[in-house]
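sry for the spam today, last one i promise. C-alpha cells for design, 240 residues
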C-alpha cells in the first residue's frame, strides 16, 4: 500500500519568468514536497478553490499541510484555507501547519496575530540574504516538539507575523527564547492538529532534513490512520 495523500496549499503570485513579463503562478518551495515524501506521504499541491469544492477535494485526500508564504490578509488563499480547515475539522482529518499555516490556524480559531513582530536577537528583520535563515533556540517545547529538534534546539526564523492571542482549542507547545509562540497543538487529542512557526522543510543539511522527517512523521502516520479508518467507513456518499 502506498502512503497517504497529503493536500499541500500553495501561494498564488505574479513572478517574472522567461516569457519576459510577470506571470500568474502558483508556487511552493520544493522542500515541502520532498519533506512530505521523506516522511512517507504523497504530496498533492492544492490551488485556491471555492468553498463548495473543498468538501469534494478533502474526500480524496488523507491529510492537510498548510504551507508558508504571504501574510494572512483576507485574500483568496485565506478563504481557501479557512474553508479547508472548517471541513478538515468537521471530518476529523489530520492537519499540520507551517509558518503562515500556524497563523491562519490561529486566526481560524478566533485568535489574533502580531502584525509585525518587534525585532529581537531571536527574530531580526527579515531580509533578502542569508539573514532570512537566522537561527533561534526553541524553549519550553512539548514532547513532540522536543523529540524532533536538532541537538542544539535551534531552528530557523523566516517570519514577521506571529501569534498574539491564542485561538480557541489550541495549546502552546513551544516558544522561542524571546517568548514568541513557536508551536501549537489542538487540545482535542482525538484529532491530530499541530503547527509550527519555523520552516522545518528549509533546515539545512542531513540533520535539518532528519528534523523535518521526525516532525512530520507523526502527522503522516495520523493521515495513514485516517485513510485506513475511512476505508472501513465509507466517506460521504456524494463523493465516493
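last one done:
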Amino acid at each position: 500500500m502506498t502512503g497517504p495523500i497529503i493536500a499541500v496549499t500553495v501561494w498564488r503570485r505574479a513572478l517574472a519568468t522567461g516569457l519576459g513579463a510577470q506571470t500568474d503562478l502558483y508556487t511552493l518551495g520544493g522542500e515541502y514536497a520532498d519533506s512530505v515524501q521523506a516522511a512517507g506521504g504523497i504530496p498533492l499541491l492544492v490551488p485556491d478553490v471555492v468553498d463548495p469544492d473543498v468538501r469534494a477535494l478533502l474526500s480524496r485526500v488523507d491529510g492537510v499541510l498548510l504551507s508558508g508564504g504571504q501574510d494572512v490578509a483576507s485574500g483568496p488563499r485565506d478563504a481557501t484555507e479557512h474553508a479547508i480547515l472548517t471541513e478538515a475539522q468537521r471530518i476529523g482529518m489530520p492537519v499540520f501547519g507551517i509558518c503562515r499555516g500556524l497563523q491562519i490556524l490561529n486566526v481560524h480559531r478566533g485568535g489574533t496575530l502580531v502584525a509585525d513582530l518587534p525585532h529581537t536577537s531571536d527574530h531580526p528583520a527579515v531580509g533578502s540574504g542569508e539573514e532570512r535563515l537566522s537561527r533561534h533556540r526553541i524553549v519550553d517545547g512539548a514532547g513532540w516538539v522536543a523529540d524532533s529538534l536538532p541537538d542544539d534546539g535551534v531552528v530557523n526564523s523566516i517570519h514577521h507575523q506571529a501569534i498574539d492571542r491564542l485561538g480557541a482549542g489550541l495549546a502552546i507547545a513551544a516558544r522561542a527564547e524571546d517568548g514568541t509562540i513557536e508551536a501549537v497543538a489542538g487540545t482535542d487529542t482525538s484529532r491530530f492538529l499541530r503547527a509550527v512557526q519555523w520552516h522545518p522543510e528549509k533546515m539545512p543539511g542531513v540533520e535539518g532534513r532528519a528534523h523535518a522527517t521526525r516532525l512530520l512523521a507523526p502527522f503522516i502516520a495520523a493521515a495513514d490512520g485516517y485513510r485506513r479508518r475511512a476505508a472501513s467507513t465509507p466517506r460521504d456518499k456524494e463523493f465516493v
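The domain at 3-230 is CATH 3.40.50.880 (Rossmann fold). ok im logging off now
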